[in-house]
Amino acid sequence: MAVTSKKSKSKSKVTTTPKQTTKSKKINFDFVPTISDSEDDIPDLDEDSANESETETDPTKPQPTTPKKKSDKKKNSAKKSKSKTKTNNESDEEEEGSKDKDLNPDFIFNVGDDLGPDTNFDGWDFQSGGDAKSAAGTGADVKRDVDLEGIIRRKGGLTGQFANNGEDDGDDDEEEEGKDEDEDDEEEEEKEGGDDSDDEELAMDGFGMGAAAKPNKLSEDDDDDSDEDDEDEEDEDEEDVKEEAEEEEVEADSDQDNDKEMEDEKDEDSPEEVAKFFASEDDESTQAAKSQIHKDFQSMQLSRPVLKGLQALGYTKPSPIQSASIPIALLGKDIVAGAVTGSGKTAAYMIPIIERLLYRPAKIASTRVIVLAPTRELAIQVADVGRKIGQYVNGLTFGLAVGGLNLRQQEQELKKRPDIVIATPGRFIDHIRNSPSFNVDGVEVLVFDEADRMLEEGFQKEVTEILSLVPTKRQTMLFSATMNSRIKDMIQLSLNKPVRIMINPPNQTATGLMQEFVRIRKREQSKPALLFNMLSKLDSKQQIRIIVFVARKESAHRLRIVMGLLGLRVSELHGSLTQDQRLKSITDFKKLTVPILICTDLAARGLDIPKIEVVINYDMPKTHEIYLHRVGRTARAGREGTSMSFVGESSQDRAIVKEAIKQVELTKSGKAVGKNVDWPEIEKINKVIQEKQEIIEEILVEEKQEKEIIRAEMELKKSENLLNYKDEIKSRPKRTWFQSEKEKKADKLGTALAKGKKINSKKRKQQEAREDAGGSRSYKKTKTDRVEDQERTMKRQKPKNQEKNKKKKRNGKFGTKR
Ligand SMILES: Nc1ncnc2c1ncn2[C@@H]1O[C@H](COP(=O)(O)OP(=O)(O)OP(=O)(O)O)[C@@H](O)[C@H]1O
User: Fold this and answer.
1) What are the respective helix, strand and coil percentages of the chain, to the nearest 5?
2) Considering only CA atoms, which residue is closest to atom 1 of ligand 1?
3) Which atom in ligand 1 lies closest to the alpha carbon of residue 322?
4) Distance 757 CA to ligand 1 centre (A)
5) Does ligand 1 lie within 6 Å of residue 610's CB atom?
6) Ligand 1 atom nearest 637 alpha carbon
7) Which range has highest mean pLDDT (1-5, 29-33, 463-467)?
8) Which helix (H) or strand (E) holds 290?
9) Does the chain have fewer CB atoms within 10 Å around its N or its C terminus?
10) How confident is the model at residue 587 (pLDDT cuts 50, 70, 90)?
């Protein structure tokens, strides 16, 4: 399906020609040969400890009508000046001053001869996720929250040198403090220098690596909307529970993945399967498109508004994945693409999508593109990138169908049938089922971002349901940094001879990434102290962004309290937080208000905050794949970054380190080193933490009590609303759910069973009970659901119709008839 454009009639077609081909260099799109399974060249981890038992501890998307265009132009210019102001406001002097200093000039965003990326893109923006009425512009309800920091403060915490950043006062003392801190730092550096010898056993050789192994809706609008919002509350609460369950799956996924999965990765597709499934390498147009390397976006025959959008973002040259994917996507072909984290995959699919919409305008408003992402935050970010690229395209509209954000607001947005809808699967299905004016019959393009994740068991049912609803005649594109999905998993997507574009070898890390590994041995209990020690040494003034990954939500929360008690202000990000809290954590992190973010794997994929300097794996992930996504939060777009991993003695942890070293050696990308730490110093800190255990428990109890009070207040309000708006609430069509929370849980159990995991008898009984009940429920509204809906709608319309009839009668009596 060749894409012709208005422009192409007078100018040139988007299809590629042999002429273009001769000018261009050829790049290899194939997978780099499979990594040898032989571990001969891999330095062994310390043998003695290899025999020690594993310990697991937890210390803590144009409708071009002329009038619309005019107003849109106005809007666009307003938008433009607005975004300019925003950029000025957002980039503080220091950041500007140091802009892209940290970029790696070798990074191949620029295939040409000059510098690394000079992008104006300053990360994603939640403000564009919804209207400005509510917190973070997302339409998310602002609900009363527990003041955890207040509790920590009352318990004597957050008093240290780290606590006064952000909105706090204490300006006068800042310089003084700065001096002291500098002196302290010097002292600490000296100490550190002297400590190297102290920890020989934990040094790089400890890993057998030798030296560096190369390399509330309670705001103003409440007066108008509060009634409706309150009525919605019940629905939304229930919906939030479902969404939470969905998100939990994202997080819990790493719990489900195990060594078995790593083995599966090695289960390669056969050459015959590959030849049958993927487009032939000999396909002429694909060949022509593939063999080019575009030195700039102009040579891709992109339209002026899109080029303007890219220019505004500071994207001068396409990254390799963009250079390779855009021409093929413009041909309307299905794509399965993989490229290293932070290499610009979002724009790689967003640019051709916008181009397609621009040159094939729809006659009537319809949603033509669906982008599916595994997490809410990623979906919001993708929408933001899309909006920014398409900011000069008249009438281009985006919609979000993302869990945790205001359902009614989204419904209103989707009613207008935005061109591009970015969605998380659960909420998307919810809208298709329950938002009558939204449908997906006009969908032409379906994108799976983080496709390998979307094809995993956690999303299987949702994806199957979505696929059954969208038209089969469509373009489907799959993108991920770890696009290792097997053909058997992709078959359900009904891809039409997809073109396989693999830029980097699978499992490669960013070129500018320094991977450091700290061996924990039996000091699991000292990990919080180690974390504190590292955080304070890394950034005594809390001026760099550090992201810390932990295995469990509880650990994230506990660590936040521990760090707070030691005077270090950190944020947490995981599925147990409300969406408001989640967005606030990210916004604070982005603005450096709270530059340390402790999170679960919810934030492992796709999150693009350009200046995350360090990623700490406090708990190692379960698989090397997740490790790649986590460390991929730094060293993005050709920048440099460091990852520090706390490596335990489990075979799983050790296997990931081995794989990381192996990949560095194989791909010659980045570095991997062992790191010494000052254990005596850390043990001192650990002692302090141990002494605070009681206080930590007290804080947790106090927090729980506050939460219960808030919950009781909310329940009370809900009951009042239920009484006050009973009739209205009852007349509403009953929302139907894709899966109940119970079903989700039962599915998880099923997954566990399928994976051969041991489950206890109670859980097994639950699973059996579910199977007895007929297994999974039907996904579409049942006939009964529909009849009930109709009855409710009729009931609701009855008073209105009665009113209309009365009016008609009145008009008959007193109206124009004489
Ligand atoms: N052509 C370009 N020139 C300069 N910067 C770019 C270009 N394309 C993308 N970027 C920037 O590179 C960064 C990474 O892009 P993006 O988030 O799309 O990466 P990704 O490959 O999807 O990463 P991940 O695999 O982690 O999801 C973003 O900050 C983006 O603004």
Assistant:
1) 50, 10, 40
2) 318
3) 1
4) 38
5) yes
6) 12
7) 463-467
8) helix 284-290
9) C
10) very high
